[in-house]
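Troubleshooting: if your tokenizer reports a length mismatch, compare your output against this known-good record of 182 residues.
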Amino acid sequence: MTRGPTLPAHRLPYLPTPLDAFNAAPAGEARTLLLACLRSPRWSRRIVAHRPYPDLDSLLAAADEAAYDLSPGDLSAALAGESLPELPDGTYSAAHTALSAAHAAYEARFGHVFVIYLGDTPPEECLDRILEGIRSRLTNDPEEERVTAAEQLRRLARSRLAANLRGAGNCATSPNAPARGK
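Known-good structure output:
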């Protein structure tokens, strides 16, 4: 049995990935995307300066490293750009009052907004986790809390960046959306 001639391989058109678009974007656009993930100009400049990244894991490793190197001023700027975690729809008003009071105590003690990475916390557990986090971290001394807040920011930035470059369309993967208008 003889076979006829084979057809040339049909290639699918190359479609750029979000990482390809990030690597090729003008520096200003790339910094804007990064600032939505962590409001530190130094952090965003450092990540942009080291493009292109061969894969998402390399970019996330660079983002982690740059976040670990934030100066106290950089950390303060990044914290100033954060907002309180949003509570799930339907949360009762007493919960909002409890969160407001706990956050006021936290901000009075440490001088910045409370940040927490909620990861895959189910929405119905977010309030408890936030209140538990504020209450437990109120016992930290200021330097210990600065280290904890920096770690939470690093985790938030990594999560937001990964979500954005996986094509999710925005940088919010936890209820800690970056502050608007800052």
